[in-house]
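JOB MANIFEST
job_type = single_chain_structure
chain_count = 1
residues = 224
[input]
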Amino acid sequence: MQTVPTPAPDPLLETQVFWSRYQRQILIALVALIVAIALYGAYRLYLSRRDAAAAALLANAKSAPEFQKIIADYPSAGAAAPAYLLLAAQQRTQQQFAEANGTLDKFISANSKHQLLTTAKMAKAANLESSGKVDEALEMYRRVAADHAQDFNAPLAMLAQVPLLKQKGQIEEARRVCETVLTQYRESYAAMEATRYLKTLKPAAPAASAAPVPPPSSSVVPTP
């Protein structure tokens, strides 16, 4: 029995059939794609203009109200983060240590991954130190060194502990901190400072042993 050959498909015909069947859906998808591209472009333009405006304000800002305005009006702009730090620095120069640390806490809370995070923590520790809160400052420096060991501020946080430990009379602990800096950061500038500190930290002299008390001399009573 002779087989009837199967006709070859006609690509043009199949395309026309597909288009006529799904024309509406295809047009809707295309329109949605065009709108999405336009919206994305508009959003990128908005971000660019917003960041440029915030950066321009930051470049000319000098007072606390100006820094606060940048933070309030452009909280998501790149200029907001340095505005926090500059505001805190200005508050510190006016010895408003509690207010400065409040500003730094807001920065830390809003910028947990920022490259200036450790700088903010160091500034907070310095404010605690200036407020006379030595133990809190020490703990903050220790956390910076422990939690951000690879950060450029880590050896500086360790060195900042040394004068505080010396002030508390903890000379051996201060020496251990310097020796750790020399071991872990031997190629850094901090190692030079640690060496200088070590020269000023003399080991505690061993307690002098008490001189033996001579037994009381017995008086000789002459025999009559």
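[summary]
The chain is about 70% helix and 0% strand.
The chain has two domains: 22-115, 133-202.
exit_status = 0
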